[in-house]
Design goal:
heterodimer; A: 107 residues; mainly alpha; elongated; B: 190 residues; Four Helix Bundle (Hemerythrin (Met), subunit A); globular
Chain lengths: 107, 190
């Protein structure tokens, strides 16, 4: 029990968690067809990367890692606003559209 | 204690993430996403990134997920999808294989750079002082970095936000202002 109490989560654990979260997001993006859920999977991947950035910032004592997470948050917010606007415009034309129905730009 | 925090937060994150991708109902996906984002915020606190933890809760769990739920309700897609049928043959096995490959690449990179597992061997430590610990002064350091080194990028993000707002207005507007959509009008009798 004392050995377990002395065990501290190292940065490797955080990086492993980030890798797992990124993988779950990527698999979800490939499997799901609802554009909204695909968007949520992108958010999962962005969060995995943010976790990795913060972990490296702590390890290297470099505030730049946290500054870039701040910018990722801003860009993610802008991306969600525009993406959801596109989805609303699409769904208005074709109610219940999935990613398969929006393939008219396919080459 | 720190271990306990990490294990609980990691469990919440992973369960929430799996919930996002297996829930048939988009509303449930969005709620699972909230759990994941809160777990990430807890880990940010554990890593002494207090400002980012607060921003994570306010922006992600507060604004972005609410926006998702708003759009789900607006479009009326809050009913369950049929996840049992697979419209594209072999998509799920291929996606799982690609995911495993992605995880494999990430793990190989991790173990190459972390040969002795506890110390990070990439890059040199910054000399500006400790980021972790009780005297880390996270908010002041992040603010100083943002308003000195990253000032230009910070100003550019304001332009980006204005562009995003204008884009959202343009996208959400009805295409024609003179012609009213039929479903907006009450049925004309006779």
């Amino acid at each position: 029990m004392t050995a377990l109490a002395a065990l501290q989560p190292t940065s490797t654990w955080y990086l492993l968690l980030g890798a797992l979260l990124f993988t779950i997001g990527a698999v979800g993006l490939m499997v799901r067809r609802n554009p909204l859920v695909m968007f949520m999977c992108i958010e999962l991947m962005l969060n995995a990367v943010n976790l990795t950035f913060v972990t490296f910032a702590k390890d290297l004592d470099d505030i730049g890692g946290q500054a870039i997470v701040f910018f990722v948050l801003v860009v993610a917010a802008a991306e969600v606003v525009v993406g959801l606007g596109i989805i609303v415009a699409l769904m208005r034309r074709r109610p219940g559209a999935t990613a398969d129905d929006i393939s008219s730009l396919k080459g | 204690m720190e271990l306990l925090v990490f294990v609980i937060a990691a469990a919440i994150i992973l369960v929430g993430a799996v919930g996002v991708i297996i829930a048939p109902n988009p509303v449930h996906s969005a709620l699972c996403l909230v759990a994941t984002l809160f777990g990430i915020a807890v880990l940010f606190v554990a890593e002494d990134a207090h400002f980012l933890a607060a921003v994570q809760v306010i922006v992600y769990a507060g604004a972005i997920v609410v926006l998702f739920l708003f759009v789900i309700m607006l479009l009326g897609v809050d009913r369950s999808e049929d996840l049992d049928t697979e419209p594209l043959g072999g998509q799920r096995p291929l996606a799982a294989a690609a995911g495993l490959g992605l995880l494999g690449v990430a793990l190989v990179t991790l173990f190459i750079t972390h040969r002795d597992f506890d110390t990070v061997a990439v890059g040199a430590k910054s000399s500006v002082g400790q980021l972790s610990g009780p005297a880390s002064d996270n908010v002041r350091k992040l603010g100083q970095a943002l308003f000195t080194d990253y000032l230009f990028a910070f100003e550019i993000t304001s332009v980006l936000l204005v562009i995003a707002v204008v884009a959202a207005v343009v996208l959400a507007r009805r295409a024609s202002t003179t012609q009213t959509e039929p479903e907006q009008l009450p049925e004309v009798q006779g």
